[in-house]
Amino acid sequence: MLGIDVVDMDELRWFIRVAESRTVTEAAETLHLSQPALSRGLGRLERELGAPLFDRVGRVLRLNANGQALLDAARRAVSAVDGARRTIGELADPDRGTVTVAFLNTMGPLVVPTLLSDYRSRRPSVQFRLRQGGTERIEQYLLDGLVDLLLISPPRSPDIVWRPLLTEPLVLVVPVTHRLAGRSSVRLAEVRDEPFVIFSKGFGMRPTTERLCREAGFSPRISCEGEDGATLRGLIGAGCGVGLIGPGPAPVPGVVELAISEPACFRTIGLGWCDRFLPAAADAFRTFALAEAKPPGMWRPFTLASDTE
After folding, report:
1. Which candidate in 70, 117, 195, 249 could, as Cys together with 109 as Cys, close a disulfide (CB 3.0–4.6 Å)?
2. Distance CA 4, CA 160 (A)
3. What positions does the domain HTH lysR-type occupy (predicted)?
């Protein structure tokens, strides 16, 4: 049985080269080593393993059964170490590597594309791997270590560090045939008796909607629940009720978006992370987002005066 204590990676690389060459001389030339140095390295490897690796026929070395058994393992080991070195290099380089970000579904049409496009114009070699979902789901992604960063409303978990980025005004979405559809703005209390189409539990907009309705003096009467803004708009356009949603990136047939004059209706989106190691690319993106992110569309930069959530 081969007795392996510590094997030098350079010696493994030399062994692979000799196994793939016809002679030690040829391998030494390829490795830019002297033949005696290469022979000594192979000798050390055989002593470390406690078994000969080659059958020597004149100046030609042929792999024996021990050497053949080692060759496949050596190739895997060298490949794994080289891959780890590349990964470690990427982790330390803010201009390379992958940033994993999870975000709320409603961030998909405008916020995430704007933020990532702006950042990649500065660091085009950085790649992004994205996940999305409701508040509870994406918080769990972060806590489980599946993502580096979150784009989210104030998180529920005390283990998530959160800093505000942007403020989004919310609008009242009604069917085009609704009695208020011709207005430019409304008070939220004007729809207190209307059925509401609302985000499902586990989504940050659910408690936001309920809180704003309470501020307007009523509890929403829920007709339908959904998990993304497009579905909610479709339900509203079909006459299932009215709803509080962020402004859409483009007009949607069948619905009208109305500004809300009272109460002040908006939500704050920020960046979340856990207090643990961040790859350099993720750390650089976090710094950029907190300091230089530009709000899209009707969004505006967060200010202390706008923070009511």
Report:
1. 249
2. 44
3. 7-64
pLDDT at 178: 96
The DSSP output letter for 116 is H
Would you state the CATH architecture of domain 9-91?
Answer: Orthogonal Bundle (1.10)
**Cβ 97 vs Cβ 90: under 8 Å:** yes
pLDDT digits (tens, 9 = 90+) for 226-238: 988 889 999 999 9
| Backbone phi and psi for residue 109, each to the nearest 5 degrees, phi listed first | -70, -35
Beta carbons within 10 angstroms of residue 203's beta carbon:
24
State the Cα–Cα distance between residues 203 and 107, nearest whole angstrom.
12
DSSP 8-state code for residue 303: -
Whether pTM > 0.90 for this model: the answer is no
Topology alike, domains 99-167+268-306 and 171-264: yes
- pLDDT band at residue 308 under the 50/70/90 scheme: very low
Q: Answer whether 232's CB lies under 8 Å from 245's CB.
A: yes
CATH 3.30.110.30 fits 171-264, yes or no: no
CATH 3.20.20.210 for the 99-167+268-306 domain, yes or no: no
